[in-house]
Design a protein that fits this description.
This protein is an alpha/beta fold. It has eight helices and 20 strands. Strands 2-1-3-4-5-8 form a six-stranded parallel β-sheet, sandwiched between helices. Strands 10-11-12-19-14-17 form a six-stranded antiparallel β-sheet, with no helix packed on it. The radius of gyration is 29 Å and the shape is elongated.
Length: 370
């Protein structure tokens, strides 16, 4: 299938072209402002499917709205008429097409051009009216306030908020692209109108607060919820703006004669992840917890885990090496320690179900072997 993507070098276009390639569509032609009118005409005439993403939303002169939206769309329709091909088209319009402003009027005019083309040729035309789209590869100070905030915060620059209570409706780029892809893989399933969802209803202030928490997590280790819904999409967007020179960052290491300890990730509701090392023959631990539980994973070396039930005196022992990928769990009321019984450095990753609170550490010194 020969697919043409107008505006293929833009924010949505780049994401769409990558996903089309992943889906096995190899014959994709990208058309941008750098192409000539003839190149556009030739590509459109030879196409089997068109994603019409190109348009103008921030022109230097108001007349460019009509040129970049209605006239460009009309020229595509005319090229298809002349080629005698009822080629399907997916058009990314805007929710502003229902508003009385120059941009909205030009987008609505483009929609009307496509509606006439569909009526005259019988071609399928799907229109999707998009609100604020955000995600990776968006442009700061252009595509959305999310892109601007992410760019600045990832570089330690200030962000400006005139009204933190201003409502904001957002759609995520992956959801947009998924909808567009279905227009090819499930033709005719949408009846001429595509809807992208979910639409996230939020405010500028809440977006800024969330993104600030992502930026500060590299310093504090405190990672806010980032695995579902809007938070997941925002976290991925923020991360995409991190400069390659900043992909890595250092943890605070606590070193002593036994080895090294460092906290990697801390959360308010799901505990924290840390790691420690121990030199050969060194024992760490020697305490019990009333409530706290931990999961240990040996990632290098060989360790002996010792346990003692503090009331009955019952003991248990377990030797684990890195090759086993075996998780060892501590249990409240059981004293425990870990000894490096190998010849090399022992490195252990651990998860605790709660944050360490120095005022209430829930850690009582107690030897495993009296």
């Amino acid at each position: 299938m020969r697919i043409v993507v107008t505006g293929g070098g833009g924010f949505i276009g780049r994401n769409l072209r990558v996903r089309l390639s992943e889906a096995g569509f190899d014959g994709v032609t990208s058309i941008d402002r750098g192409n000539t009118t003839q190149e556009l005409t030739d590509a459109v005439a030879a196409s089997d499917f068109i994603f019409h993403l190109a348009g103008v939303n921030r022109p230097e002169h108001p007349t460019e709205f009509d040129i970049g939206n209605r006239e460009l769309t009309a020229s595509i329709c005319n090229a298809l008429r002349q080629a005698g091909k009822p080629t399907p088209i997916v058009f990314t319009s805007s929710t502003q097409a229902s508003l009385d402003n120059l941009y909205g009027q030009s987008k609505r005019a483009a929609e009307l051009e496509l509606e006439r083309y569909a009526e005259e040729t019988g071609a399928r035309v799907d229109t999707v009216r998009l609100t604020n789209v955000f995600g990776k590869w968006s442009r700061p100070n252009y595509n959305s306030v999310v892109a601007t905030f992410c760019y600045n915060l990832a570089r330690g620059l200030p962000i400006t908020i005139a009204d933190p209570t201003r409502p904001l409706r957002l759609v995520y780029i992956d959801d947009v692209v998924e909808t567009l892809i279905r227009a090819v893989t499930e033709p005719g399933a949408h009846g001429g109108d595509l809807e992208v969802g979910p639409v996230y209803e939020t405010t500028v202030g809440l977006i800024a607060e969330t993104l600030r928490s992502f930026a500060s997590s590299r310093v504090t280790g405190m990672v806010p919820p980032a695995g579902q819904g809007l938070a997941r999409a925002l976290f991925g967007t923020y991360a995409s703006f991190i400069d390659p020179t900043d992909f890595g960052y250092a943890l605070t290491r606590h070193a002593d004669s036994r080895g090294v300890f460092a906290e990697m990730i801390k959360t308010q509701s799901n505990g924290q992840v840390s790691f420690f090392s121990a030199h050969p023959g060194v024992t760490r631990g020697g305490h019990y917890h009333h409530t706290k539980t931990e999961k240990f994973l040996v990632v290098a070396g060989r360790a002996r885990f010792g346990f003692r039930q503090i009331l009955t005196g019952e003991t248990r022992e377990m030797v684990v090496s890195a090759e086993e990928s075996r998780v060892v769990e501590t249990v409240p009321g059981w004293a425990h320690d870990i000894t490096n019984v190998g010849d090399d450095e022992l490195i252990v990753v651990l998860w605790a179900n709660e944050l360490f609170d120095p005022l209430q550490p829930d850690t009582v010194p107690a030897p495993v072997v009296a």
